[in-house]
UniProtKB/TrEMBL annotation, chain A:
<feature type="transmembrane region" description="Helical">
    <location>
        <begin position="144"/>
        <end position="164"/>
    </location>
</feature>
<feature type="transmembrane region" description="Helical">
    <location>
        <begin position="205"/>
        <end position="224"/>
    </location>
</feature>
<keyword id="KW-1133">Transmembrane helix</keyword>
<feature type="transmembrane region" description="Helical">
    <location>
        <begin position="279"/>
        <end position="296"/>
    </location>
</feature>
<dbReference type="GO" id="GO:0005886">
    <property type="term" value="C:plasma membrane"/>
</dbReference>
<feature type="transmembrane region" description="Helical">
    <location>
        <begin position="332"/>
        <end position="352"/>
    </location>
</feature>
<keyword id="KW-0812">Transmembrane</keyword>
<dbReference type="InterPro" id="IPR001851">
    <property type="entry name" value="ABC_transp_permease"/>
</dbReference>
<keyword id="KW-1003">Cell membrane</keyword>
Automatic annotation (TrEMBL), chain B:
<dbReference type="InterPro" id="IPR003760">
    <property type="entry name" value="PnrA-like"/>
</dbReference>
<dbReference type="Pfam" id="PF02608">
    <property type="entry name" value="Bmp"/>
</dbReference>
<keyword id="KW-0732">Signal</keyword>
<feature type="domain" description="ABC transporter substrate-binding protein PnrA-like">
    <location>
        <begin position="29"/>
        <end position="309"/>
    </location>
</feature>
<keyword id="KW-0472">Membrane</keyword>
<dbReference type="InterPro" id="IPR028082">
    <property type="entry name" value="Peripla_BP_I"/>
</dbReference>
<protein>
    <submittedName>
        <fullName>BMP family ABC transporter substrate-binding protein</fullName>
    </submittedName>
</protein>
<comment type="similarity">
    <text>Belongs to the BMP lipoprotein family.</text>
</comment>
<keyword id="KW-1003">Cell membrane</keyword>
Length: 372, 332
């Protein structure tokens, strides 16, 4: 009698996220009202700050790029029912991969060789960092959540040691590497579009955005159009059934984790190769964790991940503008607002699901069924 | 007639001041720890507040939450008409170097940096090792067990310099004293983890330490609390933290970032802004130790004399405190 009817796909993918988002904004509006600011003015500042002043869009898309990579990382693992919360560490180590190639070959080889090598290396290092927890899960049964989060700490300890020690730039005190040679610097979008005659304001938006878009397509093909993707999803749906069907479950888990880590590692192409042009302390800045919310909100689908990344990019950039504009809205308030949206669209993603499903079922149910 | 002229002159000079005031727009960009970290950033805030209270000029503020925001915040401040921008902490060095180069008409200033070179950039560097040395002297004098502790925040060269100066001060006073050193962590959360700070402090107390010095931002709150709960002594850092546990905080190593912030804006306002590096140690009053009603009973005349003696020797150059950052090693 009280069985919840399944939610139609369009409602699950579009309507439900929108309702969640609206609920989050509503609660945030109440909070903004409570501290004595007009929520509509704040929303206006946030939207303007995210899209409508010269460099804002560039910043929004720069954040978006990070979230696409980390969102894809979480989603890939999730299709195999692995919860990879180590995106942060994998991205950090990915930065090391980019740096090793950039520092070794950057000064000697042309850009067309160095850059692709840097990109591959960052993916490879990220993959390696996820491969170990993947192996431990598949072969030794160590829970992936525990190992990946521990590997975040290992990554950050290793990187601090390297950045404050062997890799540290001499003659200054900031734990960071030297600036990469020009050949290892990913071109800025401003330069690229400027070449085609478009004037763009100064922002960290760079070519890695296209790498992120390509990664979305690769992800789609991999998961839904290849044998490997089918096996990953089969393992995710039911390990026993997959094993019965002749799939090597352990192998698939390890491979899925490695691919997941590779996506996370690619985040370094944006931060390390595109923006800072060196490895700096803590360049991952929590993007790896936000990737979890992105993947949840994007329903592990490339289009959803892109839209969720764009939303979080806009929140990060627009949130900074709030901080600039209002003295009463501090950065803690901005974090609170971002947290609300993660709460409603991630943790409480299915809160409205049953009632919405019943509502839709009632509206769309055939007449005779309700009469009976 | 004469009165009229005087009045006119006064009016003119007032108008000039107001016009100057309208053109003068200061801005400060705090770093990750946040404005109210009870330590480093808050010290800057105290200087900013003093400036605003004295001159009535509002200072635009921003607190960064991620790496990319530093450059963005500086650009935005300049776009909003800032004439002098103060960056807080070495992490902003690259950003300020770039933005200062792009905006030669705007004055910039940064704290904890000494290695940049721009004609419109002032840099403040502090000799933390000297301040840490004299509180090390105090710690060795106050310790009954001959064992003292140090709790650092994130394990970076700057914090090792605090620890290294401290050890030198302790050993110079009591050659056989033992110093336990712990770093809170390797991620920026190490600046804001009072629970871990308390845990490390308890660990050091269990090993016999009875005076613990901390240079750990918000984590230090936990160190001070844990020392107080165990009936031991702690030493504050950056700002005067004596008041946080009166009678339990032996003293605080003062790093006068408030002076740096205040003088940046004051000089810029008065037209006295100069570029270059200001290296502030004991001699310049850039670092020091705190004595107030909260720790007056803890600082015996002997301790006070020892601190003053060490200070005089460092100022005169008789004692040279090794800076960890000079060669990334500590002689102790």
């Amino acid at each position: 009698m009280n069985v919840t009817p399944p939610l139609p796909k369009w409602a699950d993918l579009i309507l439900l996220p929108l309702i969640n988002l609206f609920a989050a904004f509503f609660v945030c509006g109440l909070i903004v009202l409570a501290i004595g600011e007009n929520p509509f003015t704040a929303l206006n500042v946030m939207i303007k700050g995210a899209f409508f002043y010269p460099e804002s869009l560039g910043y929004t898309l720069y954040y978006t790029t990070n979230f696409i990579f980390t969102g894809l990382a979480v989603a890939t693992a999730f299709h195999a029912l692995m919860f990879n919360i180590g995106g942060e560490g994998q991205a950090y180590i990915g930065g090391l991969g980019a740096a090793v190639v950039a520092l070794l070959f950057g000064p000697n080889l042309p850009m067309l060789i160095v850059l692709p090598l840097c990109i591959l290396s960052s993916a490879a290092f990220g993959a390696l960092w996820a491969l170990i927890p993947g192996y431990l899960q598949a072969k030794r049964g160590s829970h992936i959540v525990i190992t990946t989060i521990m590997f975040n700490f290992l990554a950050s300890s290793l990187m601090v040691w390297l950045l404050a020690g062997p890799l540290m730039q001499q003659g200054q005190q900031s734990p960071q590497t030297v600036l990469f040679a020009d050949a290892a610097q990913l071109p800025q979008m401003r330069e690229v579009l400027g070449y085609f005659g478009f004037e763009l304001a100064n922002s960290p938006w760079n070519l890695s955005f296209f790498i992120a878009l390509i990664a979305l397509v690769v992800f789609y093909i991999l998961i839904w159009k290849t044998r490997l993707g089918y096996e990953i999803r089969a393992v995710g749906k039911n390990q026993e059934a997959a094993r019965y069907a002749g799939i090597n479950v352990a192998k698939i888990i390890i491979i899925a984790m490695a691919i997941s880590g590779a996506f996370a590692g690619l985040m370094a192409t944006n931060e390390v190769l595109g923006v800072h042009n060196r490895v700096i302390l803590n360049f991952t800045a929590g993007y790896g964790f936000t990737g979890i919310a992105v993947a949840l909100m994007g329903r592990n689908h490339p289009i959803g991940i892109f839209l969720a990344s764009l939303l979080f990019g806009a929140l990060y950039q627009g949130g900074a503008e709030l901080d600039f504009e209002f003295t009463s809205i501090t950065r803690e308030m901005v974090v609170l607002i971002q947290g609300m949206i993660i709460l409603f669209s991630g943790a409480l993603a299915y809160m409205f699901n049953p009632s919405l499903a019943r509502l839709i079922a009632r509206i769309s149910a055939p007449k005779e069924a309700t009469d009976g | 007639m004469k009165l009229k002229t005087t009045l006119m002159t006064a009016a003119f000079s007032m108008a000039a001041t107001i016009a100057m005031g309208a053109d003068f727009k200061p801005a400060v960009i705090y770093d990750m720890g946040g404005k109210f970290d009870k330590s480093f950033n808050e010290g800057v805030w105290a200087g900013v507040k003093k400036f605003t209270d004295e001159t009535g000029v509002e200072v635009m503020e921003f607190e960064v939450t991620n790496e990319a925001q530093r450059e963005q915040a500086m650009t935005r401040m300049v776009q909003r008409g800032a004439t002098v921008v103060l960056g807080v902490g070495f992490a902003q060095a690259d950003a300020i170097d770039k933005i200062a180069g792009e905006n030669p008409d705007v004055q910039f200033s940064i704290i904890d940096v000494s290695w940049l070179d721009k004609p419109n950039l002032r840099q403040y560097a502090f000799k933390e090792q000297e301040g840490s040395y004299i509180v090390g002297v105090a710690a060795a004098m106050a310790s009954e067990t001959g064992k003292v502790g140090f709790v650092g925040g994130m394990d970076i060269p700057l914090i090792r310099a605090f620890g290294c100066g401290y050890v030198q001060g302790v050993k110079a006073t009591k050659a056989d004293a033992e110093v336990f050193e712990n770093m809170t962590g390797t991620t920026p959360t190490a600046w804001n983890d009072p629970a871990k700070g308390a845990e490390l402090t308890q660990g050091q107390i269990d090993r016999g330490a009875d005076v613990i010095y901390q240079a750990a931002g918000g984590t230090g709150v936990g160190v001070i609390q844990a020392a107080k709960d165990a009936g031991k002594l702690s030493i504050g850092v950056d700002s005067n933290q004596n008041h946080m546990a009166p009678g339990s905080v032996l003293t605080s190593m003062l790093k006068r970032v408030d002076v740096a912030a205040y003088s940046t804006f004051k000089d810029a306002m008065d037209g006295n802004f100069t570029a270059g590096v200001q290296n502030l140690g004991l001699a310049e009053g850039g670092v020091g130790w705190a004595l107030d009603e909260n720790n007056a009973e803890l600082i015996t005349p002997e301790i006070k004399a020892a601190i003053e003696d060490a200070t005089a020797k460092i100022v005169s150059g008789d004692v040279v405190v090794h800076d960890y950052r000079a060669d990334n090693t500590c002689p102790m």
